[in-house]
Amino acid sequence: MISANLSGRVAFVTGGASGIGLATVERLAANGCSVAINDLAGNPRLAQEVNRLKHAGRNVAGFPGDVSKPDDVTAMIEAAAAQFGRLDFLVNNAGTPGTAKPIPVDDFARMDEAFWAKLVSINQVGPYRCLKAAAPHLKKARGAVVNVASTAGLGYGGSSSVYAATKAALILLTTEWSYALGPEVRVNAIAPNVVDGSGWDCKFDPADLAATVARLPLKRAGKPEDYAEVIFYLLAGAGYVTGQCIVVNGGGAR
Ligand code: NAD
After folding, report:
1. Which of 163, 179, 233, 240 is catalytic?
2. Alpha helices of 56-185 — where are they, by DSSP H?
3. Which residue's alpha carbon is at the smallest distance from atom 7 of ligand 1?
4. How far is ligand 1, taken at its centre, from the CA of residue 168, in Å?
5. For a surface tag, which of 50, 60, 142, 171 has the fewest beta carbons within 10 Å of its beta carbon?
6. What are the domain boundaries of the chain?
7. End-to-end CA gap in the chain
8. CB–CB of 227/195 below 8 Å?
9. How far apart are the CA of 15 and the centre of ligand 1, in A?
10. pTM for this prediction
């Protein structure tokens, strides 16, 4: 497991109360980083996880807000920067499938205008809103950004083709934003596949999932900690890497 001394550094992690976001918060905080944890105001896990981590001696604070709401984003990023005095790292992790059951590619009726608008606003424009608000702080600190995309965005299927499109856009934007924020700030992405330990309410068929996992060279689904490991590396190390998307998928099913 790689480590770094991040004392004096500050991270902002969206959707940080569960799954990959929470594992990233824990990893950063265990390495001395102060962490601003965002999640939806209605998610009781935000306060629970903040309290648990504070009791464990970590320097964390909660910043409730919805990345699909521009005013929430501006307010929470500015509040975090004011409270901690700087911002070095942004992890754009908040994302949603927006459906309790995967949507077949030809089920156009379920992929209606409202569904498109919701997923684009949370998964695609949400990271943009956070990046835009955090950019001056990140540039000053010469920091780094990691966007949590998905192998769905690379054409490997997923909960819906709308979800896949938003993640494909996020992968493209990662490269665009590396030019926008360089040379001071590096911007990278990871593309996870299945997450063993996700809080997602989108349930895939267990038999389909097991068959996919059985075809992976590593023969297991990734845990939130597996993804946090690569996010941590892209933030705390990887000084000559920007504009890239690292696929983290146990080697890929074929
Ligand atoms: P999770 O549900 O465990 O955690 C996501 C968190 O984001 C939740 O706590 C949720 O409340 C929060 N959130 C949702 N919408 C939000 C919003 N609008 N504003 C702020 N917070 C919001 O999910 P996870 O599996 O850890 O997913 C994390 C990221 O990984 C997401 O971007 C997801 O798209 C991506 N991903 C997940 C999978 C998977 O199979 N679970 C696969 C590939 C990529």
Report:
1. 163
2. 70-84, 113-119, 126-141, 161-181
3. 15
4. 16
5. 142
6. 10-248
7. 28
8. yes
9. 6
10. 0.98
